[in-house]
């Protein structure tokens, strides 16, 4: 029998509630870094509920390739709980979304064409990513394109936590959202950081992906080359880009240091990946870097020029 604390721990991570918290934290970070006011609290309720529901539906449709996978076992043992949780979260998410739409209907006039495209682009990509659960779309699923899927996930997450809050903030304040190079760099930083985490996460599924001929980076290039010739160089480039931007815009040293912590931790975790890890390590430590990044960004946003 599992202890109560262990059952709670498994539910928190396997049930994807941690992903919901990470999404909310990253959304708050993005708003603060872009100097937007925080959105209505119901936006964060909607974001949390939507994230948990999306990932739970995705995992429910995963191929049961191994019965010893702890997450597969957990989903099998908690079918009724998952079903009830999904129904509650869908109801909460729909209620929050409808309220926000009604509350900000007068701000719809400030949405231009490209913003409207953005609103529909990210959920469509999210559906396309997991379209392998739909028989007639299975072959076109973005998830089946091993080399591109980490960047698709990063793009979707960046759009969800960067673009949506900005558009909603513009609607709430009856203003126009006009992104510049700074907004683009923040979008790129979020997207690339999460993409690197996804590549690390693919290490867990190496055997399954290899057998299914899914050409992820680790299957195509091997573990060592993936770690030392893809993840670490791209992370270093991302860190260098941030430092260059920060120095050129005279960011305070303390703000620079705080925002470099997630990059350094990502490199440290990458060096540790040559050893076999449990699935909860991936969920708690690797995905936990999203929360660390968000918290560092939030703290850094309160540090201004002296």
TrEMBL record:
Keywords carried by this UniProt record: Membrane, Transmembrane, Transmembrane helix
Protein name as it appears in the record: UbiA prenyltransferase family protein
Lineage: Bacteria, Pseudomonadati, Bacteroidota, Chitinophagia, Chitinophagales
Residues annotated as transmembrane: 12-30, 42-60, 81-102, 108-130, 151-169, 181-201, 227-247, 253-272, 279-303
């Amino acid at each position: 029998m599992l202890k109560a604390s262990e059952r709670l721990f498994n539910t928190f991570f396997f049930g994807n509630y941690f992903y919901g918290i990470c999404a909310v934290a990253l959304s708050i970070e993005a708003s603060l870094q872009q100097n937007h006011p925080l959105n209505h609290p119901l936006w964060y309720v909607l974001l949390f509920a939507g994230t948990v529901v999306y990932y739970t539906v995705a995992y429910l449709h995963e191929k049961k390739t191994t019965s010893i996978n702890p997450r597969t076992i957990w989903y099998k043992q908690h079918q009724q709980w998952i079903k009830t949780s999904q129904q509650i979260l869908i109801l909460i998410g729909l209620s929050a979304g409808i309220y926000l739409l009604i509350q900000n209907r007068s701000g719809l006039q400030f949405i231009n064409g490209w913003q409207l495209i953005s609103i529909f682009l990210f959920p469509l990509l999210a559906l396309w990513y997991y379209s392998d659960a739909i028989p007639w779309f299975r072959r076109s699923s973005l998830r089946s394109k091993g080399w591109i899927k980490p960047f698709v996930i990063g793009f979707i997450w960046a759009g969800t936590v960067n673009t949506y809050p900005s558009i909603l903030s513009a609607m709430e304040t009856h203003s126009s959202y006009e992104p510049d190079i700074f907004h683009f760099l923040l979008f790129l930083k979020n997207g690339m950081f999460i993409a690197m985490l996804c590549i690390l996460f693919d290490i867990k599924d190496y055997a399954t992906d290899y057998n299914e001929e899914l050409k992820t980076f680790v299957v195509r290039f091997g573990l060592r080359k993936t770690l030392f010739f893809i993840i670490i160089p791209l992370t270093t480039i991302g860190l260098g880009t941030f430092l260059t931007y920060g120095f050129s815009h005279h960011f305070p040293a303390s703000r620079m240091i705080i925002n470099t912590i997630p990059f350094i931790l990502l490199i440290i975790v990458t060096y540790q990946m040559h050893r076999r890890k449990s699935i909860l390590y991936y969920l708690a430590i690797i995905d936990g870097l999203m929360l660390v990044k968000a918290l560092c960004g939030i703290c850094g946003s309160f540090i201004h020029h002296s």
